[in-house]
Amino acid sequence: MESSATTSSKISLPQGTRIIGRWNGGRYVIQRLLGQGANGVVFLVKREKNGKLYALKLGFDTLDIQSEVNVLKALQRQGRRRGAAERDLNYLVEVDDFTYQGREIPFYVMRYVQGEPLRAFLARRGPRWLDVAGLQLLQQLGQLHRSGWVFGDLKPENVLVGAYGEVELIDYGGVTSEGHSVKQFTEWYDRGFWGAGSRTADPAYDWFSFAVVCIHMLAESALKKAATQLPQTRSRSDLLAIVDGHEALAPYRAWLKRALHGEFSDTAEACRLWKEIVTRRITPRRRTRPGTPGWIVGAFAVSLTLLACALYLTFRF
Amino acid sequence: MKQIMLITDGCSNVGESPVMAAALARQEGITVNVVGIVDYGTIGELGSQEIAEIAKAGGGMSRIVGTENLAQTMQMMTRKTVVQTIQQAVHKEIRQILGDQTVSDLPPEQRSQVVEVIDELSENSSLQVALLIDASASMKPKLRAVEEAIRDMMLSLSSRKGESQLAVFHFPGAHSGEDAVLDMDWTSDLGSARSIFQRLVMRGATPTGPALLKVMDFMRYGTLNEHGKSWREKTEGQDGILGDYVV
Rounded to whole angstroms, how far apart are CA atoms B234 and A29? Predict the structure, then answer.
């Protein structure tokens, strides 16, 4: 459920529709529908000029979509100044309007990223892959936070995961500058919904949503039950109880509690502690696997004794 | 910036026309939004027509929703109305400079700058929202949800950078002639939204028009002295206030 779900206009365009930009004249052909966000509909399109695939978002409202574009532009500017990796610079391709049935529909074109939503990824790869995807996601959030932004509408559907856990955040409609009120959020992942704090954008708002996403992925039915109880009784302690009570969440327990309380000094620390969980889960096994069985130790001792005896006997005579 | 949000589940049946009252409000710079609540059923042809017309006259939006979507809808409308009000002001400026153009007519580059300004103003402008709740008998089972939605709205408003205040009224009052009852005076304190409807006496009549006029009166005169009074609470740790009501 989106906080702004009630936009009246529906846009449904059939495959093969050609979208021509009013200002820049860019031409794109719709391949298929990719998804729907609160502010618009996203299509997979092919650019006529070079035959490459892109994702194109048609917006319901000029102001909303422009506001989103402004965030993306600011991010790119900041990324460029910092000299971030090349792939992050080409996110936004172009911004334009499309005249459809006498109406101007704003759109923007972004790079197309192949991947599947977090839930599908974990279902296919197994829940242990949350270690990898989670770390990547935290790093992405950290990048945003360092530039003074908060993602806001963090939920499993907005996390796209590549084949080996590479994470891409999609739908920047909720991205809010720190200190402002969060532009867009979804109930379950919203700090305010759980009575656990304000809706003013700060990094801790994203940590909270991240923790609920983890709980959702590993203990869904418990989360659902807690979320649908009476609002007066719903609170952060319900989430803490789930974290305590579910075996699947045990490895992340301490981390999740800190996230729900917003008790990291910054997102870099949250990242570091997550990394510690992930590596701690791996190292003990490495230590036990090459562990030498008792009988070999015994046999070795016996052979040493024999050698000693043999040497003794040899040199004695 | 001033808004009235009317929450109702049916048709007015007493007194002045609510559509006229809304038109008057608009003249005074108050936008009127209307939410119609339906649970298991419809609001009726007449009811939904009136709801749409009140909003139209009041320069606002109308939506018909179930109680589960009430909180979201109220927040969405408030937010959009703030943006629209600012947009209208900005449009006026643009028109003076560029002739008959709107933001959508601007090329993307300039549009980007204008929207940046609109966003910034929307976040920082001060805002007053008066909620007017229909408390006729059929609304009774929905009032819990309404109260919850008000609390949630309060949380969102207090997260804004700009000054935000909320007041709550219900109608009709206990006696005939009492068109609207003040349940919560202008506040930005979450704690005060805990139990809003205590002095509720359900009555059959639905004097939507007179109630709207009453609220306008309050916004006109009642606010001037109050303004800025309950302010410090917002800046002082919101967590404290929140923790309060969570328990």
Answer: 50
